[in-house]
Specification:
Largest sheet: none
Order of helices and strands: HHHHHHHHHHHH
Strand content: under 5%
Shape: globular
Oligomer: single chain
Length: about 280
């Protein structure tokens, strides 16, 4: 396994890595706190949360396996060279564990708080079911030949795929409601910071080793940063430019019905008591 050539770059690598970990980890809390304060999850897309849980679960499997398994590390060195460094750091594993736990808590909030008429779509249920069925099949394929590096690369590919699609339901929901009300922008700003720091960490390692294997040897981490940054910019644009300070649009019919109901129940209409 290769060693660091530059102490400053090694320090920078660690600082950026834990900066990404802290930013990404804290990014889950604004939404959880917002849900708790409102006692409502209206405005948060359920498909986004379910897809996110699958994404982080598969990413945890990849990170933990590559970081802790000597057998998988051996296969990695055989494929990419003994002079390379393992592209998963301790902060990657710590982040994945934390992400799974916080996403599960968000799902619990969805179950207990006011959620309106929203449900998890059948499309999302189908995607998640198909993904885990595919993963199970790959496990049975890898067992006879002990192709562990190939197997965890499948989980890495799954998390990349889920990262690409998980934001889409929330983007369209914000567009349909013409509002980001109920969806925490704090989550997005921290996620953006984490993505930039994560990409910078990988760049620092590549510069030190004078090799870009770090990027395509862990393509999942590379795409994770780039895709997250891309969608975060969209959310930031929606929140601050397109729908600034706008509450979700409510149909005029619903407003009229609520107004009528208040009039009927008011003391000025005692005849309503006999209805």
């Amino acid at each position: 396994m290769a060693n660091w050539n530059s102490i400053p770059l090694e320090i920078t690598y660690e600082v950026l890595g834990w900066t990404a970990f802290i930013s990404w980890s804290i990014s889950f809390y604004p939404q959880v706190i917002l849900n708790f304060r409102r006692k409502s999850v209206v405005g948060l897309n359920f498909d986004f949360v379910v897809l996110n849980l699958t994404k982080h679960s598969s990413y945890l499997i990849y990170n933990a396996a590559l970081y802790f398994s000597s057998a998988i590390q051996k296969q990695y060195f055989e494929k990419y060279g003994q002079d390379q460094m393992i592209p998963v750091a301790a902060n990657d594993v710590a982040f994945s564990i934390h992400a799974v736990l916080l996403t599960a808590i968000t799902l619990f909030q969805i179950a207990i708080y006011e959620r309106g008429s929203q449900k998890v779509s059948k499309i999302t249920i189908g995607i998640v079911s198909a993904v885990w069925l595919f993963a199970a099949v790959c496990i049975f394929i890898a067992l006879p030949s002990h192709s562990w590096l190939w197997l965890i690369s499948i989980f890495n590919s799954i998390q990349v795929f889920m990262t690409v699609i998980k934001y889409i339901p929330q983007v369209f929901m914000n567009f349909a409601r013409k509002s980001t009300d109920g969806f925490s922008i704090g989550n997005i700003l921290l996620d953006f910071s984490g993505g930039v720091a994560n990409y910078g960490q990988m760049a620092g390692q590549s510069i030190d080793q004078d090799s870009w294997v770090n990027f395509y040897g862990n393509i999942g981490k590379t795409l994770l940063s780039l895709v997250s940054i891309f969608f975060d910019i969209i959310f930031i644009f929606q929140h601050y430019v397109i729908y600034p300070h706008k509450k979700a649009q409510v149909s005029s019919k619903l407003v009229e019905e609520e107004h009528t109901e208040r009039l009927v129940k008011s003391p000025e209409h005692p005849e309503s008591e006999n209805v």
